[in-house]
Amino acid sequence: MDKRFAGLRTRIGLLPGPVTVAFVLACGACYPDEITSADETDVVLTTRRTEDFSPYSTYAMPDTVIDICEDAADPECEDALDVDHSYDAQILSQVAARMQAYGFQRVPIDQVDGANLPDLFVLVSVFATERTAYTYYPWWGWWGWGGYWPPGWGPGWGPGYGGSVSVTRWDQGTLEIDMIDPIDTDVEQQIFHVQWAATMSGVMGRTGFDTARIDRAIDQAFDQSPYLGGGAD
Amino acid sequence: MKMIRGMFVSLALILIWSGEAKAQDWWWGIMYEMSATSSLPGNSNMDFDFIEDFSFRGIGIEARYLPEPGAKYSFGFNASWNVLNEKSEFGTDRNTISLSRTDVTGTQLRYLNSVPLMANASYYFGGRGGIRPFIGINAGTYYIERRVDIGVSAVVEDNWHFGWAPDAGIVVPLGGPEVAMLVMARYNWAFSSDGSGDQKYWGFNIGIAYR
After folding, report:
1. Per-residue pLDDT reduced to its tens digit, B26-80
2. How far is residue A31's CA from residue A97's CA, in Å, rounded to a whole number?
3. pLDDT (tens digit, 0 to 9) for every residue of chain A, 233 residues total?
4. Closest partner residue to B90 among A14, A28, A40, by Cβ?
């Protein structure tokens, strides 16, 4: 054998140690982080029709949190779950506190009529549903052969199309707050325009939601909407 | 498609050229690569500082042709895989995304996977057998995927970018003239492509090279 190549082979023999370390350190995965608890799935989304809330200073809010999918026969609610209403009073109280903090004055709902309209109606609703996702994972990946694989699947299985499929189901709860201007309407379309909406959703843990998650979500919705306090002070 | 075609033509030319070179003229290196974006000056893209955390995930190969032992310059190519990631908790400054009339807050998992495929030219100081500082320039393509997971949703954007990367480092002989440690810092700059802004990040690479 050529001495030069014999030397090369010897020197390559030095490489596996550092090379292995480099691979182990470097090749964890394309997506190394992960969600570690249900509360990390909480998402707060707020939308607004206007940023000028100066015309609004009063509001009325029904003393009820509506379950959007209370009617189980509604075809749009076929995956709906029963809603736990034990947090309703807390939710309404928290919303009222944040509205007051922004300077809005609450009008008792039983005093509202055609001659005594508030500037805004604040409506709070919830729904819970079962979700399903089909996710393609790299077969060699960071996730390993965890408990979410279908029965019978395991390390002996390989990729048929560049990845393997995971079927995941979870229960998701959503809390919605809508602010409606009773004057800003479209009569032809028969709609009230929603001036501000907050949608707070998250994966329900084994015990559903807790008060801390609900409080945090409502606070975040108002915190990220400072324009609400623009004209109501 | 033009970009991909150009990349393959470039690689083909390099391979044809390398086939005519003698085996001992080529240095091959395998690199462990760390990356940083906005934690160092000069890093930004047109959108925002996408990932701030330092990354310890990356790997690459280097191939350099020296026309003669102790040559002052080399030509070659390199390919890498750099993974940058960041998890921002609910309630931190960076976890609210503001769009037109909409704000979204949640725990975010951000990922940037970058695969640079570059041609390289380097100039070396010092003499054969000693520690040799070098400066170099790389030019080629980057495949970059950016992904944000929020809640149970994900937004993914991936593009091919032209780009370049100046670098500087040292070659340290390891007990002989044909095995060396390669240490370098490289500034990766992928130009904007298909609405995705310029992507820039530092690379800190260390590895073993042999011929």
Report:
1. 899 999 999 887 556 555 554 557 888 888 889 999 999 999 888 999 999 999 9
2. 40
3. 334 333 333 333 344 445 545 554 544 567 777 777 778 888 899 999 998 999 999 999 999 888 887 777 777 777 778 877 888 899 999 999 999 999 999 999 888 888 888 999 999 988 887 776 655 444 433 334 444 444 444 444 444 433 445 566 667 788 899 999 988 877 777 778 889 999 998 877 656 667 888 899 999 999 999 999 875 44
4. A40
In this complex, is the C-beta atom of B8 within 8 Å of any C-beta atom belonging to chain A?
Answer: no
Classify residue A25: in a domain, yes or no. no
Q: Note whether B31 contacts A: Cβ–Cβ < 8 A.
A: yes
Please tell me the total count of domains within chain A.
Answer: 1
- Report the distance separating Cα B156 and Cα B147, nearest Å: 4
Q: What is the number of other CB atoms lying within 10 angstroms of the CB of residue A157?
A: 13
Q: In chain A, what residues touch B86 (CB-CB under 8 Å)? A: 33
Does A15 sit within 8 Å of B32, measured CB to CB? no
Q: Where are the domains of chain B?
A: 2-210
Domain assignment present for residue A57? The answer is yes
Coil, helix or strand for A195? strand
**Under 8 Å CB-to-CB from A40, ≥6 apart: which residues?**
B89, B90, B107
CA of B136 to nearest chain A CA: how many angstroms apart?
A: 23
Q: List the CATH number of the domain containing A168.
A: 3.30.160.670
Number of H helices, E strands in chain A: 4, 7
Domain membership of residue A14 (yes or no) is no
B155 at interface of A, judged by CB pairs closer than 8 A: no
The Cα–Cα gap between B22 and B211 comes to 11
CB contact under 8 A, B107 and A41: yes
Per DSSP, B67 falls in state S
Residues of A in contact with B176 (CB under 8 A): 11
Q: Which fold has domain B2-210?
A: Porin (2.40.160)
A68 within domain boundaries:
yes
B72 contacts chain A (CB < 8 A): no
A-chain residues near B32 (CB < 8 A): 18, 21-22, 25-26
- Residue-range definition of the domain harbouring residue A103: 32-229
Write down how long chain B is: 211
Closest-CA distance of chain B to residue A113, Å: 31
pTM above 0.90, yes or no: no
Distance from the Cα of A179 to chain B's closest Cα (Å) equals 15
